[in-house]
């Protein structure tokens, strides 16, 4: 027997053998599915030849694996313009070569973190400097063909709505 109701109000008590809650969720913007996924930058150290970007090695008691590899390409893009705001607005974009990754987590600002080193010079023209809070996505690899693939799902750009599959991304061109 199945009952489908628009609303139900129970004044005293309800008993359930099994209760399944179904929610609708939404993500605005663009999602990238890739071999290294995405990380939130916890901070950046400026070194001689690279930017060292830190991200958490543990979340909610669960160890987070560093899935980045040397030769990967790191991509970040954000736009913080709000309606009616005309001053102090900017966009942030970079696509840079990963030149090193850590082997084991290290302490950074009191937390255990992984890091990736992003080249200062090997990047797409006009790349910004990485900063705390950036969501850094994996978008291709220079030599490993198994890491040159990703999927982008977008609801915000000129071609949206779209699901784009990329293969063989070994430079700063799609």
Question: In words, what does this structure look like?
Answer:
The protein is 0% helix and 43% strand. The protein has strands at residues 30-33, 38-40, 43-46, 50-56, 58-59, 62-63, 72-79, 91-101, 106-108, 111-123, 135-141, 150-154, 162-166. Strand 12 (150-154) and strand 13 (162-166) form a beta hairpin. Strands 2, 3, 4, 7, 8, 9, 10 and 11 form an 8-stranded antiparallel beta sheet that branches.
**How are helices and strands ordered from N to C?**
EEEEEEEEEEEEE
Termini separation comes to 53 Å
How much of the sequence lies in strands comes to: 35-45%
Average pLDDT metric: 89
Instruction: Give the oligomeric state of the chains in this entry, treating copies of one chain as homo and distinct chains as hetero.
Output: single chain
Roughly what percent helix? under 10%
The beta-strand count equals 13
Main sheet characteristics: 8 strands, antiparallel
What's the tally of helices?
Answer: 0
The structural class is mainly beta
Catalogue the unreliable spans. none
The shape is globular
- As a whole number of angstroms, the C-alpha radius of gyration is 21 Å
Concise overview:
The protein has 174 residues and is mostly beta strands. The protein has strands at residues 30-33, 38-40, 43-46, 50-56, 58-59, 62-63, 72-79, 91-101, 106-108, 111-123, 135-141, 150-154, 162-166. The chain is built from no helices and 13 strands.
How would you summarize the topology of this molecule?
Elements: E1 30-33, E2 38-40, E3 43-46, E4 50-56, E5 58-59, E6 62-63, E7 72-79, E8 91-101, E9 106-108, E10 111-123, E11 135-141, E12 150-154, E13 162-166
Antiparallel strand pairs: 1-12, 2-11, 3-4, 4-10, 5-6, 7-8, 7-11, 8-10, 9-10, 12-13
């Amino acid at each position: 027997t199945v009952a489908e109701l628009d609303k139900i109000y129970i004044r005293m008590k309800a008993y359930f053998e099994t209760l399944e809650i179904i929610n609708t969720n939404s993500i605005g913007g663009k999602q990238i599915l890739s071999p290294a996924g995405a990380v939130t930058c916890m901070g950046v150290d400026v070194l001689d030849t690279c930017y060292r970007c830190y991200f958490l090695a543990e979340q909610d008691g669960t160890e987070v694996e560093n899935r980045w590899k040397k030769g990967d390409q790191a991509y970040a893009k954000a736009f913080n313009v709000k309606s009616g705001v005309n001053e102090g607005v900017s966009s942030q974009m970079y696509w840079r070569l990963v030149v090193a990754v850590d082997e084991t987590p290290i302490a950074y600002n009191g937390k255990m973190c992984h890091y990736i080193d992003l080249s200062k010079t090997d990047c797409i023209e006009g790349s910004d400097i990485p900063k705390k809070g950036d969501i850094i996505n994996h978008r291709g690899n220079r030599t490993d063909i198994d890491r040159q693939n990703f999927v982008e799902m977008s609801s915000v750009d000129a071609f949206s709505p779209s699901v784009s599959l990329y293969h063989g991304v070994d430079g700063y061109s799609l």
